[in-house]
Amino acid sequence: MSGTKLYEGKAKILFTTDDPQILRSQYKDDATAFNALKKGTIAHKGEMNCAIASRIFQYLESQGIATHFIQQISPHEMEVIAVKILPIEVVVRNIAAGSICKRLGLEQGQLLKQPLVEFFYKNDELGDPLITDAHIEMLELATPEQVTQLKQIALSINQHLQEFFKRCDLILVDFKVEMGIDHQGKLLLADEISPDTCRLWDQNIADPSDRILDKDRFRQDLGNVAEAYQEVAKRVLQA
Ligand code: C5P
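YS: structure for the whole thing
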């Protein structure tokens, strides 16, 4: 396939196409965690995440969320609209898990009274620190209007995703999204939504380790990582 490599991230490679407004996003089997301190591969992850993300982008588009997704063009590749990614990771949490438990002493699995939006500065050298609206303004990472939009869109995505994953018997614990600006200045959901970027628990399993169907299996060496992604793919593609 034509095109030159524009950018290689931890989980995907972006290539140019003949159209400057369109890029090819290639999903990799590589897996990293803890700011790439832990590295590995998950068999067929590229294909599974590409299929899962494609389905989710299509679903969100059908619910009125503007995304960068155009179409899936091969098992591990999709065409996307070229955007300038804001260097902000937007995390939405419904249940306490991961970094918020360490940071604030919350109990893992504690249901939050309402969804919580957090911002992290996308900066590997600094280890993606938590930032506030004031930091975003100070660092000029986005305008105050964009910050308001980011929160609104993230909460709307959360509502739609919770509904979608419920149909898959999956509990959406939390997730991370990245957004970008297209050539017309429009804010679009970009990057990916997959078990790499969401915590997903099997609704029908009570055991706190057995129910995990996302990258925490890789992070915590719980085993059956590819099997968990496969299970999510099966359910998401049927939903
Ligand atoms: O690590 P933490 O608990 O802050 O992660 C919150 C959510 O964001 C999790 O679903 C995790 O998979 C996702 N995340 C991500 N990429 C990062 C950091 C977190 O997809 N760099």
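YS: worth flagging: The two ends are 31 Å apart (CA to CA).
IM: good catch. Also Residues 89, 91, 98-100, 128, 174-176, 197-199, 215 surround cytidine-5'-monophosphate (CB under 6 Å).
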